[in-house]
Design goal:
The protein is α/β, with parallel strands linked by helices. The protein has one domain: Rossmann fold. 36% of the residues lie in helices and 26% in strands. The protein contains seven helices and ten strands. The strands form two sheets. Strands 6-7-8-3-9-10 form a six-stranded mixed beta sheet. Helix 3 crosses helix 4. It starts with a strand and ends with a strand.
Length: 223
């Protein structure tokens, strides 16, 4: 069974620019797929489409056999909340919450068990090297630290699908290595399907497959 499956999806920008068309690919549970490509080809747009944040102009996207195009906004929001972890390029960390509160947010939206959410958030902060910073406020963090918090938050509820947009773009090599290891271990141990947009050779190296996105669609990076 595929966790992510697309069939013939297309996306335009404006009236006269086709980002891509006829794009079909699938990702199975426990698989990490890296997507590379030149700036402007639509890599971040593709991630947004997989998350149900943007609609495809044609074709179908399924997450765990659920067709996104058949869901209303409320159902898409519920699916994202419960089954998808998203690491945005812009972090979307709330500055006036503590790191612990930021990481626990996905759990707070799913379950009223605040003690369990707090404990799990602490575990994830430790995993990304911020275990002693849970009570610090996000407004006081560097860009690299915010990225690590964003990754901890994306993984805290053990999602079936992980979508990440340049997850190591603001990290030094040592921190990037730790984060990549965490992502790879989470994908395999949780049986999650991950799609990571990246320019990083290190990210590509830990991936099961590397695909290049262009107007022609997705092709194996070395094929």
């Amino acid at each position: 069974m595929w966790a992510i499956k697309t069939q013939g999806i297309a996306k335009r920008v404006g009236a006269d620019r086709q980002l891509f068309a006829g794009l079909s690919f699938a990702v199975k549970p426990g698989e990490l797929v890296a997507i590379t490509g030149e700036s402007g080809v639509g890599k971040s747009t593709l991630l947004n489409m997989l998350a149900g944040l943007e609609d495809a102009d044609a074709g179908e996207i399924r997450i765990e056999a659920v067709a996104l195009g058949r869901l209303d906004d409320a159902a898409r929001t519920k699916l994202r909340r419960e089954r998808i972890g998203f690491v945005f390029q812009a972090f979307h960390i709330l500055p006036y919450l503590t790191l612990e509160q930021n990481v626990a947010l996905p759990l707070a939206l799913i379950s009223p068990d605040s003690a369990a959410a707090k404990a799990r958030a602490g575990e994830m902060l430790a995993e990304v090297g911020l275990g002693n910073r849970g009570r610090d406020y996000a407004r006081d963090l560097s860009g690299g630290e915010l990225q690590r918090v964003a990754i901890a938050r994306a993984l805290v509820h053990q999602p079936a699908v992980i979508l990440a947009d340049e997850p190591t773009g603001n990290l030094d090599p040592e921190s990037a290595g730790r984060v990549l290891d965490l992502l790879a271990r989470a994908v395999r141990s949780q049986g999650a399907a991950a799609v990571i947009v990246t320019h990083s050779a290190a990210t590509a190296a830990v991936s099961d497959r590397v695909l290049t996105l262009s107007a022609r669609g997705l092709t194996p990076a070395h094929g």
